Amino acid sequence: IFTDIKVLEDKIVLTLSDNSIVNIPFAAAFKLSIENNDIVYDKIRQVIEIPYTVSAKTAGTVVDVMGYDPYYFQVEVTEEKILVTPMADDAAATMMVVADSKVGLVSIVKLSVSNEMVIIVDPEPEDFWEDYVIDSDGGTIVANIVSNVEIDAIPREGDEEWITIVETKAMNAHTITFTVAPNTNKDFRTGRIIFYKKGTDRNIHSLYVRQNGLGPKDLSKNGSANCYIVSAPGDYKFKAVKGNSDESVGTVAKAEILWETWNNQETVTVNSVIEDVDFDDNYIYFATPETLKPGNALIAAKDADGVILKLGETLSGTPTLDPKFETFVNDAIENKLPYGIYYVSHARSMDDFMQEANWMNDTMYDLLGGIFPPLGIWWDMEVPSVCRDDVWPQLRDVIGTQQSWYDANKDKIGIYAGYSYFNQYCDMNELAYYAIPVWVAQYGYHENSLKAEHPELKHAGWQYADSYEGMSQDVSEWYGI
User: Fold this and answer.
1) Cα angle at 40 between 35 and 45, to 5 degrees?
2) How far from the centroid of its chain's Cα atoms is residue 369's Cα?
3) Beta 139-145 vs 174-180: how paired, if at all?
4) CA-closest candidate to residue 442, choices 480, 468, 415, 476
5) How far is it, in rounded angstroms, from Cα 388 to Cα 400?
6) In whole angstroms, how large is the CA radius of gyration of the chain?
7) Beta strands 339-344 and 307-315: pairing type?
């Protein structure tokens, strides 16, 4: 019937006796593919995006990553990318990216992640027949193994301490049910179930079990809630979403314990219920003391470490209150958010500076009850009228006058300006001598150049961006005053 058979890269070509041709295309193999490009990153907490594809993907295909310490890496898998975030300068791991079809087909790619780059490592063929990945909590796995002989399934020596064979059934295929005990260590571990021809020591197949190391337990793994209950000491996390939904709470800068209680009349010791709390990668993390103290605690997600609010600006020669100041400052006080104030100066003379300083003092008394802003008072120096060669003595002296007014907070009256303004219009020696705080604006640069060039100054902050996650708002790194 067939006069010729050719096996090509993507099909088999059959030539029949009547010279007709039959093309039989190969079915696509189930395969995980990651482009073999070196991916370099240069700082911690930078998200590394690793695109991947799965050919012949089934409806139930799951892609997972294992082999990393969750204290050194945050890993998330999306439909098209693996997102790896190094959490420390010395973070390094060999990660296994596993695509599981859930119908007996598995494909694996190794990623070697160091503090310099991510590279793809070809796995040793003999190492991987079939792999199952499970988290640190452990659980039950049902594996389907195809074999034309009867088998005995036995954990590798030493692995029986945490892998237990529950049941083996043989019909058209072998169904192996086994349990994996919780992993109480931070390091991942690899176990092996060896399949022998029944009644012999002939090894005919192996199945590898890879279990992630112990990290914070995800309380929201099966759904978010307004309240979470823990019954054992340890590290925990939950998604920063509005309870019983997937709706984000918005931009979060930090998490904070608002209160703790022992559910009785006793005075609570601080951090006796919740020892520590943090926010990272859209999760709230918290830890209990080693000995769990029964009680309740309220954790809040906050939107910033602090805000500097515009108090006002001189318009048409008259100091003028910013129309949003009262709303913003009341919100900050209500939410116990540290705040400071800034004033956009238009001073053309010493008299103008004193008019602005007196107005600031009176307005603070009227609106803040005379309370000094915790993050200080800032002279915003950027409009043309204050960009003049004789401005420095006047600015220095008006700050000196304010320091005499607010003696207890005299070290919290500073200057906000761009990098070039400090270099062109301010006396660096006197800035350092009088320890006047400086807050510099310098966008799109890898460092605070003013701080690098003039470490002798009292640096309070560096405004490095004017947008955050698509929102138009200034963002600063705050060193403190």
Assistant:
1) 115
2) 40
3) antiparallel
4) 476
5) 20
6) 32
7) parallel
| 307 conformational bin, left if phi > 0, alpha if psi -120 to 50, beta if neither | beta
Asked if 320 contacts 313 with a C-beta cutoff of 8 angstroms, the reply is: yes
3-state DSSP assignment of residue 158: coil
Strand partners, 12: 7, 24
Question: Which residues is 308 bridged to in the sheet?
Answer: 340
Per-residue confidence of the chain (481 residues) as pLDDT tens digits? 667 777 665 667 778 777 888 776 655 667 888 875 556 555 566 788 888 998 888 888 889 887 777 767 788 888 888 888 887 777 778 788 888 877 666 777 878 776 666 776 554 333 333 467 787 888 888 776 655 567 788 998 899 999 998 877 654 456 788 899 988 887 778 888 888 878 888 776 677 888 877 778 888 888 888 888 998 888 899 988 877 788 877 666 678 888 888 888 888 899 999 999 988 777 899 999 999 889 999 888 766 667 899 999 999 899 999 988 998 898 888 777 889 999 999 999 999 999 999 999 999 999 998 889 999 999 999 999 999 999 999 999 999 999 999 989 999 999 999 999 999 999 999 999 999 999 999 987 888 999 999 999 999 999 988 765 444 567 788 888 7
- Reduce the secondary structure of 302-341 to three states and give it as a string: ECCCCEEEEEEEEECCEEEECCCHHHHHHHHHHCCCCEEE
Which residue type is seen at 75? V
- Written as six digits, the tokens of 249 are 């709470």
> Token digits for 456?
């002798």
β-pair partners for 337: none
Measured between alpha carbons, how far is 283 from 280 in angstroms, rounded to an integer?
5
Widest distance between CA atoms in the chain: 108
| Cα–Cα distance, 82 to 99 (Å, whole number) | 12
Q: Using CA atoms, how far apart are residues 255 and 299, in angstroms rounded to an integer?
A: 7
Residue for token pair 């040793």: 124
Here the tokens at position 403 are: 């320091």
Q: Can you say whether the dihedral through the CA atoms of 422, 428, 431, 435 is positive or negative?
A: positive
Angstrom distance (rounded) from CA 409 to CA 365: 15
CB-based contact 33:99 (threshold 8 Å): no
